[in-house]
Amino acid sequence: MEEETKIFQKDGVEAYVKYQVGHENEPFAPGAAFPFVKAVEVVNEQLRQLYPDSDELFDIVLVTNNHAQVGVRLINSINHYGK
């Protein structure tokens, strides 16, 4: 979110939200945690195969300090990348 951060820092929250809403159907590029999250998903899939009656061992929770309006773009990005 480098470009988005620059917009927020230069032009403020209103411009930032306007940009995010205008780009809500464009997924965010994978960030630093992306490979880790994918690895956790693989572990969960393997655990499900080994223990089909148990719950997943790991839950992936997204926490952000971004404006609530950015949530649509985050959800669209998650759906784009498969989970």
TrEMBL record:
One of its GO terms (molecular function) is 5'-nucleotidase activity. GO terms for biological process: adenosine metabolic process; nucleotide metabolic process. One of its GO terms (cellular component) is cytosol. It comes from the Eukaryota. InterPro entries: 5-nucleotidase. It holds the Pfam family 5-nucleotidase. This is Uncharacterized protein. It comes from Scyliorhinus torazame.
